[in-house]
Amino acid sequence: MADPEILFDPFAPGFTDDPYPAYRALREGDPVQEHPFGFWILSRHEDVSALLRSGHSVDYRNTEENSVARLQADAMLQADPEYSETIDTYGLSMLDRDPPDHTRLRGLVAKVFTPRSVAALEPFVAELVDDALERLADASGGDLIDILAFPIPFAVISRMLGIPAADHDRIRELSGLLVRTLEPIGDPEQLAPINRARLAMQEIVTGLIDAKRAHPGDDLLTALIAAESDGDRLTDEELVAQVILLYVAGHETTVNLIGNGTLALLRTPGELKKLHDTPQLAVNAVEEMLRYDAPVQQSRRITLSPYEVGGKTIPRGAFVIAGLASANRDEAVFGPDAAELRVDRANARNHVSFGGGPHHCLGAALARLEARVAVERLAARFPGLALAGEPAWNGRINLRGLDTLPVIAG
């Protein structure tokens, strides 16, 4: 029997500020845990990595009918639909589909989301970062989330997709609600607002697609509309779903990467100095930031057959949480100092922050580029950067990040 004191409890006071003691307790006491809420959670690196590559499902429809995941998804679909004429794309993104649907969707998106197109963005990213750092210097500090971590990835994905500036504020507001659909346990009071945001975002994206069809541009959205493989194209519903996924996942996760990683550097000033003195460490520093405080803390799989792990059998149709953040702190892989930030850690890239298997994050190269440019330039410009007060966490379990990060620029 599991020790009741080490149950995964994301609602415990202080959990979202620092979940890592709870994850360590899981790894040491019950690394394959059947939770009273009706799901399983894996916390060791070996088990998490194997599950991500196992070929089990991501589609909530494969869960048992009375499971928390199925009930939550059904509640989402029934929650106060305000826009009755809007198409519904819930569950159509590649994040929610299994092969062969996932293979087809990912293949079409990957045709335009290429390493070359990502690499070509570096001068634009550098310009955005330098402008942000100039504002930080002029004010002798400020909120690093508001000045740097949020605007950079938001501007980049907006430019990639060719989204007009007039739509940015509304999309930013809606995506802040939509990101909550990635939480493992939803707040019932948030279902109706999230559903309205989802439908409103679909209306905006549908309008943008219509505009791009009438006036094609040199952008990702135009390329997605035209993307074809063996005569196959994205349907209108699929196109809307992928664009929303790219927008929400394409900037919220990178906000967390830059924000969480910078906070870790500020709390270990020796590592910040190391990065300042040796700028070429920036590439590995980003991998260590991804490992140390994962911007996405969990992934999911639904078992298609009984699954043996850690001496236990998880039944078919079970919702299983892969504890990415816990796996990244596993001492068995990263050593006795796994709970410490080391920008020169030799095996930092063994993290699982981008998932694994067929669902490995398509935007990994873009996130790495944005974070590398941001932290390299930040460390070079402000070797004496320091906290100006307590940071505030966003209260999320999965896309756990900072709402504010007050700093003094020195």
Shape: globular
Binned, the helix content reads 40-55%
For the sheet with most strands, the description reads: 4 strands, mixed
Given as residue ranges, the uncertain stretches (5+ residues, pLDDT < 50) are none
Average residue-wise pLDDT: 89
Strand content: 5-15%
- What value does the Rg take, in angstroms? 21 Å
Q: Report the CATH superfamily.
A: Cytochrome P450
Per DSSP, the total helix count is 17
> Can you write the helix and strand succession as a string?
HEEHHHHHEHHHHHHHHEEEEHHHEEEE
Distance between the termini: 53 Å
Shape-level CATH architecture: Orthogonal Bundle
What attributes does this structure have?
410 residues; 4-stranded mixed β-sheet; 3-stranded antiparallel β-sheet; oxidoreductase; 48% helix; 17 helices; Cytochrome P450; alpha+beta; Cytochrome p450; monooxygenase
Description:
A hairpin with a 5-residue loop joins strand 1 and strand 2. The protein has a 4-stranded mixed beta sheet, sandwiched between helices. A 3-stranded antiparallel beta sheet has the order 3-11-8. A two-stranded antiparallel ribbon has the order 5-6. Helices cover 48% and strands 9% of the residues. The chain has one domain: Cytochrome p450 (Orthogonal Bundle), CATH 1.10.630. It contains 17 helices and 11 strands. The relative contact order is 0.18. With 410 residues, the chain is an alpha+beta fold.
